[in-house]
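ugh ok so i messed up the first submission bc i forgot one of the chains. this is the corrected input, ALL of the components this time, i swear. 676 residues overall. if the numbers dont match what u have on ur side tell me asap before i send this to the collaborators (the ones from the other lab, u know who)
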Amino acid sequence: MGTALVYHEDMTATRLLWDDPECEIERPERLTAALDRLRQRGLEQRCLRLSAREASKEELGLVHSPEYVSLVRKTQVLGEEELQALSRQFDAIYFHPSTFHCARLAAGAGLQLVDAVLTGTVQNGLALVRPPGHHSQRAAANGFCVFNNVAIAAAHAKQKHGLHRILIVDWDVHHGQGIQYLFEDDPSVLYFSWHRYEHGRFWPFLRESDADAVGRGQGLGFTVNLPWNQVGMGNADYMAAFLHLLLPLAFEFDPELVLVSAGFDSAIGDPEGQMQATPECFAHLTQLLQVLAGGRVCAMLEGGYHLESLAESVCMTVQTLLGDPAPPLSGPMVPCQSALESIQSARAAQAPYWKSLQLQDATPVPTSPSTHSPEGRPPPLLPGGPMCKAAAPAPAPAPAPSSFLDQPCLCPAPSVRTTVALTAPDTTLVLPPDVIQQEGSALREETEAWARPHKSLAREEALTALGKLLYLLDGMLDGQVNSGIAATPASAAAATLDVAIQRGLSHGAQRLLCVALGQLDRPPDLAHDGRTLWLNIGGKEAAALSMFHVSTPLPVMTGGFLSCILGLVLPLAYGFQPDLVLVALGPGHGLQGPHAALLSAMLRGLAGGRVLALLEEDSTPQLAGILARVLHGEAPPSLGPSSMASPEDVQALMYLRGQLEPQWKMLQVGAFTPQK
Ligand code: X5A
Ligand code: ZN
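and heres the new structure output, hopefully the right one now
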């Protein structure tokens, strides 16, 4: 199932006819710049192109008053003077004779997208529209917005498709107060918005944009505001907000559909936002949302006023919707103090309404006050190696707006996205047509040489499996293959993993993340040089060994699994910035298919998607199939209503995080506040 791109050229018609410094940034070139770049990159051609239709009067009436709709209709026949006079009745608004037509196309585009996704025509999509929508209210235009495109789409999804749980993620840099007002008492719509706030000193200057606005009546806890009180928020801040605030709530909510108010004025270079997040960050945000709602994600353009940054960020979003792996994030992964304070205050405000926040915030984290110092970052790397240079962490601070786009991408896309290298090619495997079943093996002599130090690799079956694994790994290290799965006899799992680590490190990986589930012993000679991050979950080793060798006996079977991924695995992984990921399901891993799929899908955000999953040979073909599909970019199945972590699990996790936090800053969920 593909990706829809909904557009209509007519939406470039509306434009500002008089002088107004506040409104002049919302111009037609925003759409043409984004679309041109999508074409240049060959992305538009990969989408299902849908021509936007106008929303009907009834559809607009789902959220707007009839009086307001007819007021906007009348602007079609007004002269410039009258248009200007009417515009002055609203905050940051201009009308043009084409505004009504454009705004109906913008709302209609969102409806078409939702229909295409909910009827199964496509998996996901983007509506490239203007005017934007999220500031618009029941009877008012506001902030360049005329009709509330995303709100109309949500109301339509409820009314026409009978949905009960819709998540709206508003990553535009402004508060979508229009959406908030329309759904504040509605528990079927969870609205999340982060926005430049500066303690209320930034437009639209509303008290109700703060973290303590959490909805009302039945809708208490279904409005989630994350106000940024400083400009300059970057990749680490945005990722921390998703991992520690949005995603725990989103999984607990278990949406049937995700709508994105996709404004790109939150990206670097934008004159409104003044933020620092790079376009690649939007690939990661998109990828994180794709694990929800069975991958049903509908993004609709809102703001974004730096044409270059906008075009690039739109490409990142579409590319990710199409299933391409996200490029690695640049810059130090250390959230700033102000971001942590904001995240903490939003978590505190939401805690009464969400189980996933309660246990955690009840337990103070045993740690020292955090600082800005990047001392917790892994040490610098040895230069060289044939692997993608862009994957190496940039020691420099976030690049200046003028130069952020001309970093050459040094990684050509691998020709094969996913390879399955099982010992006995399985005919019952259900795989996407372009997933390759690997025939090849590494040379016998070479395989034997790697196997020699390990007793458990002496058996013929283990050697055969190792040969296939090494061949796959080499394909990944050479950049021909992006991701893959391989199998090994259970008795040889630990040794095979050890060989894979050594081979990866000696053949070009500069930082290798190994996530080992179940009874997999840490390789005895695993170096402590910062090039390998070893993370064992559900094994028998005691908790928290050191910065680069982390173990937790936490059983993955329990509801603690999600907290473990969001609160431990991903923060460590994003902080480490690996260029190769090994995920091994060892003896007694206890993971069910959907859980293993979710973990793999989320680890795909690392290392440009260069992820090798190692399974036990007697795993079911279903497990191999689901992992191959997820590594290939398909959405993991929904986990359904999540069972919550047991208090003991949460305690164990909190303790471990407290130990590791001084070194791994992405683990921080908030600024340290001493108990009252
Ligand atoms: C959609 C959007 C911004 C309005 C800013 C007014 N609106 N100063 O980004
Ligand atoms: Zn905006």
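quick check: The chain is about 35% helix and 15% strand. that seems consistent at least. Residues 99-118 form the longest helix (20 residues).
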